[in-house]
Amino acid sequence: MSGDRDISSVMGFSGFGKKARTFDLDAIFEQTRRTAIERSQHVLGKFIYKNVIISCLDDDDDLVGPPLPPGYTGSTAHSDDDDEGDAQDDGDDVSALGLDPSGARLVTGGYDYDVRFWDFAGMDQSLQAFRSLQPCECHQIKSLQYSITGDVILVVSGNAQAKVLDRDGFNVMECVKGDQYIVDMANTKGHTAMLNSGCWHPKIKEEFMTCSNDGTVRTWDLNSEKKHKSVFKPRSFQGKKVIPTCCTYSRDGKLIAAGCQDGTIQIWDRNLSVHTKFHCRQAHTPGTDTSCLSFSYDGVTLASRGGDDTLKTWDIRNFRNPVKLATGLTNYFSMTDCCFSPDDKLLVTGTSVKKDEGNGKLVFFDRASFERVYEIEVSSASVVRCLWHPKLNQIMVGTGNGLAKVYYDPVKSHRGAMLCVVKSKRKEKQAETLTQDYIITPHALPMFREARQRSTRKQLEKDRLDPKKSHKPEPPVSGPGRGGRVAAHGGTLSSFIVKNIALDKTDDSNPREAILRHAKEASENPYWVAPAYEHTQPEPVFAEDSEEDEEAEKEPEWKKRKI
Fold it and tell me: Where is there biased composition of kind Acidic residues (predicted)?
């Protein structure tokens, strides 16, 4: 070996061949373990979240899914562009989020009036919605929520009538509109002004609740759309009407809470709609919109997100003063959410920003100490909606620039977004065609001029607009006839006989042959008249065809003598 090394050094090359690479497997495993530990350093209580974001943008892929309901539109995202807009007047805000109890489908709504359906099991990495529709025409969507069974969706928009859709977007129910000329809102059948919020009862699948600018909170029954079930009327300290901006049920469904524009939080017993059970008159700054109320899973703590840039928690057993308070949480929207973690140890909310003034954040607070445990910079726009699903252990976020994002942990989360991120994007089928270059020579002689190429697509489009060419042929009518069309023949005996007579194609042009057609059969087999006159009837003698008759037949018609 030393001789080979000397020869290679003298001749100017390093060796006679490639050496086999060696791997230290223990070192590789140790490096992989350290990398995994470093990636798992972001701890949220007992929940570990990896900063993996699923952004739902628009595309023009083919839509798949169940039959299309009325009001279907073709696009599949809430934003036609990715520019960040002003948080207060941007038209691309995702203002509503809803996830069914099983976590299989996500529904989003925005200021662009569209409601979009997302199926995690049916999506791939392209992340396209399978359904997009406008159930409330030109009214922005304010709230979307699945019922406890997941078979219907409550749609609260900017009009006075809430709608209930099924899982595929078809209309199930529309609440009645009340009489706006009646002063006492308890005597009307429904809301008379714009809706602000709504939610389903956590125990009764047919009951839901809405609040409106007419100063009432109403409960409804899914089986009775003609009138509300009960009415709750928030009142100020002076007894005047105040507008509720958000409403929610307690976890057991026995209490109804509403946040009002005068800064109060009022809670009623569900079965007693006259007087409030709990009433805090200075919960938030008067004149601001309380954007969200959320009960904890143990049913003791109530969290309120105010328009005065605060987040507060309340003990409903002692409802006079807040238990904890967090300030400096900018809020420009009347539907900014706050929610509890599935283990009730964390409280999460979003912050708002103006254009080019920072990033919207998702802020996590410890419920006991109310310290900021963690922050996630979501995007350069405001964080409007947030939803922490207890079964999936995933956080859904709706932003002010038209994005719906999902945060999940590879270990702690289950299903949901993890079903679609592992699927590769489907390749589009492309048809390859060979085309011949066409040279335009307008001044060439006719014998050298090429025929102008004609596109069949334009002709097909013209034919499609032509009512005659694009008319589908009507099938033959069976039976007596319908729709103004008469059948080939009716169902009666007379019509059948008439049809057979019309189909008789025998030629009776020669009357002699027509008379003698049955003469031979009558002479051989006499049955009717011949036996009675057999002995007295003379033998018939028929004239024979003469040559004159044949010549007369050959003469043209205009030469024959007129009688």
Answer: 80-93, 542-554
Higher per-residue pLDDT: 90 or 383: 383
- Answer whether residue 78 shows pLDDT above 50: no
Q: CA 279 to CA 208: how far, in whole Å?
A: 22
Three-point CA angle 183, 260, 178, nearest 5°: 30
Spatial contact of 281 and 252, defined as CB atoms under 8 Å apart: no
What domain range includes position 251? 52-56+91-422
Tokens 């057609």 correspond to 517
Highest-scoring range by mean pLDDT, 71-85, 192-206, 271-285, 532-546 = 192-206
Give the whole-angstrom CA distance, residue 117 versus residue 422.
20
**What is the C-alpha separation between 25 and 460, in angstroms, rounded?**
65
Closest CA relative to residue 371, chosen from 44, 51, 54, 3:
44
CB proximity list for 325: less than 8 A, separation 6 or greater = 310, 311, 312, 370
Structural contact between residues 145 and 200, judged by C-beta atoms closer than 8 angstroms:
yes
Average pLDDT over residues 348-366: 89
With beta carbons less than 8 A apart as the criterion, state whether 96 and 335 touch: yes
- CATH number, residue 170: 2.130.10.10
Query: Alpha-carbon torsion 228, 162, 290, 237, what sign?
Result: negative
The 10 Å Cβ neighbour count of residue 67 is 8
Helix-strand-coil split of the chain, %, nearest 5:
15, 30, 60
User: Is 352 a residue whose pLDDT tops 50?
Assistant: yes
Question: Which of 450, 402, 533, 411 shows the shortest CA–CA distance to 112?
Answer: 402
Helix/strand/coil for 523: helix
Measured over the CA atoms of residue 499, residue 505, residue 506 and residue 509, the dihedral's sign is positive
382 domain residue, yes or no:
yes
d(C-alpha 228, C-alpha 235), whole Å: 20
Radius of gyration of the chain from its Cα atoms, rounded to whole angstroms: 42
pLDDT at 507: 59
Residue 37 corresponds to which tokens in the numbers above?
Answer: 């530990």
Q: How many CA atoms lie within 13 A of 534 on its CB side?
A: 10
CA dist 64 and 162 (Å) reads: 28
Q: How many CB atoms lie within 10 A of CB 358?
A: 12
pLDDT tens readout for residues 491-514: 567 776 776 776 665 555 677 777
φ/ψ of residue 558, rounded to 5: -75, -15
Work out the number of other CB atoms within 10 angstroms of the CB of residue 330.
Answer: 17
CA 293 to chain centre: 28
Q: What is the pTM of this model?
A: 0.62
1 within a domain of the structure (yes/no)? no
Q: What are 482's strand-pairing partners? A: 485
Could you tell me if residue 446 is inside a domain?
no
In a 13 Å sphere around the CA of 341, the CA atoms on its Cβ side amount to 19
Q: Is residue 368 part of a domain?
A: yes
**460 token code pair:** 């097909």
